Amino acid sequence: MVASQPYTILEELSGSVEVRHYPAHTLISVDVAGPFQNAGNAGFRPLVSYISGANQARRQIAMTTPVTHLPQSESVHTISFVLPEGMTPEDAPLPVDASVRIVDKPDSTVAALRWRGGFDDRGAHKAEQKLLASLHSAGRTTAGRVFFARYDPPMTPVFLRRNDALVELA
Prior knowledge:
The protein is an alpha+beta fold. The chain is globular and about 50 Å long. The strands form two sheets. The chain has a nine-stranded antiparallel beta sheet with strand order 2-3-9-11-10-6-7-4-8, with helices on one face. It has a two-stranded parallel sheet with strand order 1-5. It has two helices and eleven strands. The longest helix has 17 residues, at 121-137.
């Protein structure tokens, strides 16, 4: 079983939106060029190499969930792995691949909308619109772009896969 990033649900809004608190955590991230549909696979490869030992310490690191996907534009996407709980940027081995970077994320309050099924641009866009509509009706202000999280390996049946649309709150 893969460990998941911890969070606390602070509040529930209309439309099944949760307001969550995420403690500070460390990510490894890579920017990839291309369409939404291809970004996850393109970003996954260098990140899985890093946790498999392609780092300066040649240390293997446990896989955790979620894998996050932040569209920067139509053609640039940031794909990230959450490193195991308690691993700080100082603890994380330096990457050997210059495209992989270590990111320190402070604690944050995030709105999240979960959906089940496949992860594609149509489903993500629909979840994003529902999330933003719920926040608008609740009078909440966002701080940044909507990003997405995937929790399940490819062998999980599509109808059982968990995905989240998320956005930090101001």
